[in-house]
# Entry
Amino acid sequence: MKKVMRMSPILIFFFFLSPMLMQSRADQDFDVRQHLSTVSRYGVMKNVAPSSFIPSKIPDGCNPIHLNLIARHGTRSPTKKRMRELERLALHIKELIRDVEKKRSSLEKLPAWLREWESPWKGKLKGGELVSKGEEELYQLGKRIRERFPGLFSDEYHPDVYPIKATQVPRASASAVAFGMGLFSERGGLGPGKHRAFAVTSESRASDIKLRFFDCCESYKSFRKNHEPAVDKLKEPILDEITSALTKKFQLNFTRQDTSSLWFLCKQEASLLDITDQACGLFSPDEVALLEWADDLEVFILKGYGTSLNYRMGVPLLKDVIQSMEEAIKAKEENLVPGSYEKARLRFAHAETVVPFSCLLGLFLEGSEFQRIQKEQPLELPPKPPKKRNWRGSTVAPFGGNNMLVLYSCPANSSSEYFVQVLHNEHPIPVPGCNQSDICPFEVFKERIATPHMRHDYNTLCSIKPEEQKQKPVITTTRASS
# Structure
């Protein structure tokens, strides 16, 4: 007769408790500030790099001769429109609480902070400006770039050697100024920081097709206007599911709009104020993951790989990048004296600039998607949590997010004399067109990545044709793979 193994009561207790403890630890490790899509702060996200990717080694004898930077502005305050939304939210929550009190129901489950909550931006007349955290992000980025590439930034400052360009939007130009103060700190004689004056130039919003191509492209504006309602519809099931959970949990009759506004409040509190236990505390980590995914879908469809127009309208910027590299190669081969040619082209713009440019480079794709993009074949939407995905707004374009293309001269290399290294948020990143390497021979970079896009003409792409007024996004359903 076989003996029956009996577990002691203590072992049984720990057997059932251990999954709960593991879940508790997972919840404690969860940092909501890393899950705010494009509202994530650069200081939180800049060290989040692909863990499995091993960067290529820069070949011996190679030296950087030119740098292209395309950066998003730093952390900013909410816009005036969104501040009014939060004020409306505060009024509606007060109404919901009064309704519960009239019915003599319990408010016991309602968080104490929410009972008297007022928007931190109540009564503020202006919005959308760069905040002090955003200034610091760009200032420190400038300092780190100079430390990382000392040879590139050893020349005396001149606007033709280090041109700094920004869009004609105050938060972008303020970001450029903060960056320049870091880049050229202790290089002048102004004040205790020994700062020096430098130029930031901007083109008119109406004609800036390099940094605000999205604002000058009529066919894109038409596409976006036609598809924003469909994107909202796509997000509704997530919002409805979470609204139902919030209503049940707190016994307040929340609407879908309330949930959307509370999620927006969570993002603003966590990113701007480092408050993660108020609005963000209303949502579980699983709910945050779903809300983040819904935001990421919007970025994917309306700014990213959703349709080729989204990124191919960025061709003028790509052409500008390639031209700057070719000029740097020419200066190198003609042995021009330092100070007589450009060594870095530094640009400051918006998520609507950085996201399409990342797509032009083919970043954040999976499997065979790069080949499909080159042939303008449809992509599937990023997979729904808990499945993993490469496309996350918090890494693609957080506040201060950036792409850097560093051109190296490698005179001793037998295969190619010039290489391009691609950095995203200061980290080497795999580039599908370069066989998943972060380093590419310049001619290969041009042929495989730039040329397929550069055959498209901006004016042709952006002029509205009647039959294209209702063009559909180049997407299908969510990916089945993890």
